[in-house]
Each structure stands twice: as C-alpha cells, then as structure tokens.
Design a protein that fits this description.
The structure is a single chain. The protein has 432 residues and is an alpha/beta fold. The protein folds into 2 domains: 27-305, TIM Barrel; 313-422, Sulfite Reductase Hemoprotein, domain 1. The protein is 46% helix and 17% strand. It is built from 15 helices and 17 strands. It has helices at residues 5-8, 57-70, 82-97, 112-118, 120-125, 139-156, 171-182, 190-212, 228-241, 256-272, 293-304, 327-349, 367-373, 406-422, 424-431, and strands at residues 26-31, 34-39, 45-49, 74-78, 104-108, 128-131, 160-165, 219-224, 247-248, 254-255, 278-279, 283-284, 313-316, 357-361, 376-379, 389-393, 396-401. It has an 8-stranded parallel sheet. A 5-stranded mixed sheet has the order 13-14-15-16-17, with helices on both faces. α2 (57-70) packs across α3 and α9 packs parallel to α10. The longest helix has 23 residues, at 190-212. GO terms for molecular function: 4 iron, 4 sulfur cluster binding; 4-hydroxy-3-methylbut-2-en-1-yl diphosphate synthase activity (ferredoxin); 4-hydroxy-3-methylbut-2-enyl-diphosphate synthase activity (flavodoxin); iron ion binding.
Length: 432
Amino acid sequence: MQTDETSLMSEQPYPMGPGVRRATRQVRVSWLGHEVLVGGGAPVVVQSMTNTDTANPIETAIQVKALAQAGSEMVRITVNTPDAAKEVPAIREQLDRMGVNVPLVGDFHYNGHKLLTQYPECAQALSKYRINPGNMGGGKKRDDNFVQMIEVACKYDKPVRIGVNWGSLDHELMARMMDENNRRATPWEAQAVMRDALVISAISNARRAEEIGLPGNRIILSCKVSHVQDLIAVYRDLSARCDYPLHLGLTEAGMGSKGIVASTAALSVLLQEGIGDTIRISLTPEPGGDRAREVIVAQEILQSMGLRAFTPMVVACPGCGRTSSTFFQELADSIQSYLRNQMPIWRARYPGVETMNVAVMGCVVNGPGESRHADIGISLPGTGEVPSAPVFVDGERTVTLKGDTIAEEFQAIVEDYVERRYGLAATSSENK
C-alpha cells in the first residue's frame, strides 16, 4: 500500500526556536565608560569566576584577562579577606592597563559588610556585588549586615546580585517554613519546601533591598541548587513571581562531562522557555585544567540554541567504519581550535564572522551534502574512497584538494573566505 504523502502535510510549519524571552527590568553593569546590560531584552550574558587568591593581584588579573579573552563578559572574584579587598583596586588598574574591558564582580560571604565599609576603594573598583543572605548571620545581626552592604551599593550606585544557595539557605526561614508545612493538611515533601524557601528568600531580600533604597533596576537574583530538576523547578517558580533579571547556574555541577551535561540539561530547558539573563557553568577544573573551559561551554550552549553567536561553528561527523583514518578528526580539531584562537582578532576585523558555519566531513555518505549546507566545507575521503577532498564554498564545489597538504590548503581557503566575506572593506563596498 502506497502512502499518500500529501495527506500527511501540515497546513503550517511546526514552530521552532526558543520561547519569548521573559520580560524583566534591565540592569546596567558599568565601569570607566563601558557597560554590560543584563535583562530587559539584552542578550544572555556569559560570566565566569576566578579561582586564584585575590590577594595576589598579578595572578588574578592574568586569569581575569584569560577568561575575558575566552569570551567571559563579566568575571567574579572572591573578596573574603582584608588582603583580598585591598588588592581589588590594583587588579582593576592592571586590567585597565592591559586593555581588558570586563567588569569585576565581588563575591562576598560572612564578612562582606565589613570589607565593603572598611575598604571603600574596593567598593568603588568593583562593578557589581554578589551577596548571599544565608551567610550573613542570624536575626538582627543578619539584617544589620545586609543593610550595611545595600547602603554601600546605594552610595556607589552598584548593582547587586542577591544569590541564595541551597547549601547556605537561611536556617531561620527554613525552620519557619518547615513548621508551617507541618501544619498543612497534606504536608509537602521536604525538598519542595526547600525549593519554595529559596524563592521566597531571594524575592524577600530583593524587596528589602528596595526598601533600604537600592533601585529595583540594580538587582539581579539567583537561586542555586546542584540537581537538574530542582534547578528547573526553582527557576520556573522564581520567574513567575518576579520581574528581576535572573542569573542561571547549576552550582557544584561537577567535573568533566558530568558537569557539562548536567549544566547543559538544566540551563537549556530554562533558556528554551525564555528564562535566564546571565549564565555561568560551574565546572570543577581537572588538575592543571583550563579555567576558561567553563566560558567555552557557556558560549556553546547559547550558540547551539541559536540565542547568540560567539565563534564559527564546525560541523563534523562522528566517524564510523568508513573512516578508519583519523585524518578528518585531526583536521576538524585543528580547524575548530584555529577558528576559536582567531576570534580575539577577527571579532573586530571581521564583523559577523562568528555566524560562519564550517563542515569537516569524513566520507562520501553525508560529506558532500553537509559541506554544501555549510558556508564552507570539505568532504574528506573515507576508507577505500578516491583520495580526493572536494571543497564547497557557499554551496558550490570550487576545488578538489589532494596530497599531503590538504589541511594547510583548506585553512588557507578558510582564511581567504573570511577576508572576502566578512572583511570591513567588503562590508563597506556592499553598503555603497
């Protein structure tokens, strides 16, 4: 029986793409004439955090620079001791001398109220403060400490992220809510009460900050947990109850593929629903690992979802019995590394190059087709195939490469394509 394909056709194409971005206030994070916009329709911002001793200003400035060059648009530093607070202005000055235009966010716990008031130069050098209400004491002491920090933010006109964390949730609030839960006819599970307490803590502290005098457009919220489904539930709830911009991140996500997969699973669901204005991927670095990996993962999540573009994307097949040679894998890795390493230069010289798609395919099955769909692509010979590699540019076959210099020749073709398509001269001539 032959299928009537016409009867299966839809009247309209099925919708795709992320949901409408959640409407929020817009927060401006500024320093020395520069600013990063968070929320209010601005692109989702990538941020990261150093793991150096902030009391070592040179080491910290070097890592901030590396994170910024990788694409971090805000960098958070730990401010936990008087020595660390004293060095924050030096870190800012060093970054300015190196031309590193990235805002510094101060991460405060336990003694932030003292450090911000006792070291005003630190308070001024930072572009934003991160406050954890659960780590500020209890009762009146907690409120006094919170008031001091918010008053400093008001004095220097600094935005604040009020970040609650399930590992340091306000014990008094949690105890009260558990008591209330026990009086319910059908008590909730303890995990549900905890999620509700996180949301209530974040919003109530934000409202308290506004009562003290911090404008509502200077507040960002976060509710960090380390389990995927908890994070999704908490942020869905939080986004429904307020219009503050939200910072997303799976705290203590873990190391390697586990941390990457868990963070991607949680954040992708929320971003698809239009929730989230800044993100950080909290990866545990492998010994000697590159801290900038968390920045690259954050960028790749946003770019894979079509929310932003940071660097040309490389499409490559996974390999199979047709591709017993590792040449195509090595070429794909080489091209991907080359494109990312070029971006600090290309970003200014070749506007729009970050949207380019490159295909490096390993055999004739999908190779020519994928290469035609990319802006520029190469279809390498698989095992037993004719030893030639056709190159496709804008869907057209332009040249066939052979021999031992395929990698070098293809890279040269990519360089020429970037210059012709994205060069400022080409852009200017097109606009005439």
